[in-house]
Amino acid sequence: MTLRSLSLLVSLALCTPLAAHAVEFTPQELARASALQKTLLTLDSHLDTPANFHRAGFDIQQRHDHNALSQVDYPRMVEGALDGGFWAIYTDQGDRSEAAHVHDRDAGLLRLMDIREMLAAHPDTFQLALTAADAARIKAAGKRVVYISMENASPLVDDPSLLSFYHLAGLRLLSTVHFANNEFADSATDKKGAEWKGLSPAGKALVDEAVRLGIVIDQSHASDAVFDDLLERMPVPFVLSHSSAKAIYNHPRNLDDARLKQLAKAGGVIQVNAYGGYLIDTGKTEARAQAEDALMKQLGGDYDGMTIAQGVALKQGLDALDQRYPLRKATLDDFLAHFEHILKVVGPEHAGIGLDWDGGGGLADLPDVSQLPKITAWLLRKGYSEKQIAGIWGGNLLRVMAQAQAHADKLATPKK
Ligand SMILES: [Zn+2]
Asked: What is the total count of domains within the chain?
């Protein structure tokens, strides 16, 4: 992870006082919400937690709260009634040289191995899920659900045929691009602007191959032109694993209402994000960004190489910076403004949850996964049915996955 992405990440791990009007729930509402979540599948479509798997001192079976590096572990998953979700193979976009392509290839494979090793080390608590039906079976066996996703396809530039290897190893959700354009697609946030005006020829071939294998395509981080290309090209629905609403906060990572409607019409799903910088204008100054960079240097300057214990020092350092360079921190209210708007535009059958945990997500009053029943309590308060809530917490996303897999099966069946 770069210092730039780190500064985005850590700025969100701070505690600031809540606004007076912040939404609150009674203990009874939260207990009912938690009990309901336990009866249905509660999945998050974007867990960056595998970034912690290699980190010295990190143990997914242990609680690591009050730590700027960790929002997800087994004890907090149990507390928040989170059954699991899509665990990301995230790769920082390299400079696109030949050497960078090989580096990205290796980084992706290592992150895949990190996930597989976590599964191998904890067979009683976590299990790999491969089909849409697997999640319910794994939950019924008393374990947490691990679908594997890839955020940024840069590990595939060197050799796109590796996609079939990733599929064999469990990959079921694939995004093309991250903060900057790559060989497959334009990013929503590349300062240089469009390079391909959507998907590149290699990106189109990659998407077609993913469709053939039954891997779901994830539009998050890609430009609006990529969305339009996917809409035209895809024979099956696609998703946005962690994105929010442009009508509520005009950021290129968010989706406008016209495209939200097109997504729903095509059967797709948007999983609403809780990444503060996409929900609100945090008012971050250059001075604050520089102070964060200086703090990182003080702690060794290597985000990936930090120990989990250093995450506590990082949090304390950031709390101190917060006094000197205050930021507006997104709250549950800010998230709910996006969520409510999206639910209105696409309907509850086309919305879900992807809060960007361990990747910069989380809210002042929902700092880690232990607090997830607040979202369910809000849905219940708003009158959503248990069936609709089950769709939002995973059913909708799994429906898209089942469609992708059924289509791949049909393609693989020889015509009579
Ligand atoms: Zn992301």
From this structure: 1
CB within 8 Å of 11: residues ≥ 6 apart:
276, 277, 282, 284, 288, 292, 318, 327
Neighbouring-strand partners of residue 187: 222
Both structure tokens of 240: 């946005």
Enclosing H/E stretch for 90: strand 84-90
In the reported structure, the alpha carbon of residue 359 is separated from the centroid of ligand 1 by a whole-number distance in angstroms of 7
Q: How far is the CA of 175 from the centre of ligand 1 (A)?
A: 10
Asked if the structure places residue 117 within a domain, the reply is yes
Whether 9 shows a pLDDT value over 80: the answer reads: no
Is there a domain that residue 250 lies in? Answer: yes
208, 172, 147: which is closest to 411 by C-alpha? Answer: 208
Nearest alpha carbon to residue 246 among 214, 208, 278: 278
Ligand 1 mean position, distance from CA 48 (Å) = 8
What CATH number has the domain bearing residue 342?
Answer: 3.20.20.140
CA of 151 to the centre of ligand 1 (A): 7
User: How much distance in Å is there from the Cα of 50 to the middle of ligand 1?
Assistant: 13
| DSSP SS3 for 118 | helix
383 alpha carbon – ligand 1 mean position (Å): 31
Within-domain flag for 114: yes
Q: Which residue range(s) make up the domain with 336?
A: 3-411
pLDDT one-digit tens code per residue, 43-91: 999 999 999 999 999 999 999 999 999 999 999 999 999 999 999 999 9
Is 416 inside a domain boundary? no
Residue whose token pair is 């791949």: 408
Average pLDDT, the chain: 94
